[in-house]
From TrEMBL:
Its EC number is 3.5.3.11. GO terms for biological process: putrescine biosynthetic process from arginine, via agmatine; spermidine biosynthetic process. This is Agmatinase. Pathway: Amine and polyamine biosynthesis; putrescine biosynthesis via agmatine pathway; putrescine from agmatine: step 1/1. It is an enzyme of class 3 (hydrolase). GO terms for molecular function: agmatinase activity; metal ion binding. InterPro entries: Agmatinase-rel (IPR005925), Ureohydrolase (IPR006035), Ureohydrolase_dom_sf (IPR023696), Ureohydrolase_Mn_BS (IPR020855). Belongs to the arginase family. Agmatinase subfamily.
Amino acid sequence: MRFEEAYSGNVFIKSKQNYDEAQAVIYGMPMDWTVSYRPGSRFGPGRIREASIGLEEYSPYLDRELDDVNYFDAGDIPLPFGNAEKSLDLISGFIRQLLLNGKIPVGMGGEHLVSWPVMKTVADNYDNLAIIHMDAHTDLREEYEGEPLSHSTPIRKIAEYIGPKNVYSFGIRSGMKEEFDWAKENGMQIHKFEVLEPLKKVLPTLEGRPVYVTIDIDVLDPAHAPGTGTVDCGGITSRELLASIHAIANSGINVVGFDLVEVAPNYDPSEQTVNTASKLLREMILGWVK
C-alpha cells in the first residue's frame, strides 16, 4: 500500500497531504473481533475523523495550532473481519514501516487489543521503553474464556514483553483480584481511580526515556463518554483527562507514539463521545508531537 494513496475519504482535520514530510502519521485500526460485551469500536476511527471537522484548530490550553504540526492521515489499516491474529500481524507490519520512515505513530481504535502489536513493535525500535496506560480496566488477563487474543490482555502482554516495572497504569477501577495481585507481585504500578495527581509524580521518573501512551476512552466516566464497549461508572472527568494530556506535554518527556481506543459511536447518539475523542486527539497531537 502506498501511503499517499492510503485513504480517500474523510481525514482528521488539517491533515497534510505529504507523507514524506510528516512528523507523525494518524491511522485507524478498525477491529472489534474479540470484545467481550458490546462490539462497535471498529467504527470509531471513521467517526472521530468526521467529528474532527467541527474542532477549532487552535488549542487555548497549549497556545498552539494544528498548522504548527505536520501530520499525515494514512486512513484505516484494512483488517480481515474476524481474524484477530492476521489483523495484529498487519498492524505490526504497518507500524514497522512508519518507524522505519522515522514517523510518530498516532493510532485510533478499535478495541484495546490493537494496541498490543503497536506497543511491541515500538518496544523493538526503542530501548528502555516505558508505557503510560490510562483505562478503567487493568487489561492484565492472560486470556479471556480460553482466548489469549482478547481486548482484556494487551497490558499483560506488553508488561511481560518489556518488564512490568516499565508499565504505569492510571485511572484503573475494574479488574480481577488476580490481575491486581499479579501487578503488585511483579512491581507494576497501578494507580486506582485517579490519573492526574499520580501521573504528575511519575512523569519526572520517565525523563530521558522513550514513552508510549495508550488511552482507553473508558477511563472517562460514562457521563462523559457513553459511547464505548465496556462502560464502568466512577471514572474521571474529561477535564481531568485533558489536564493529564497537558501534564505529559509540559513535562518534556519523549513521547514516541500514542493511541486512543475503544470509541464505539453507536452507543452514543448524542455524538458526545466522538466529539470528546477528537478534541483529546487534537490535544495529544499538539502537545506530544514536538
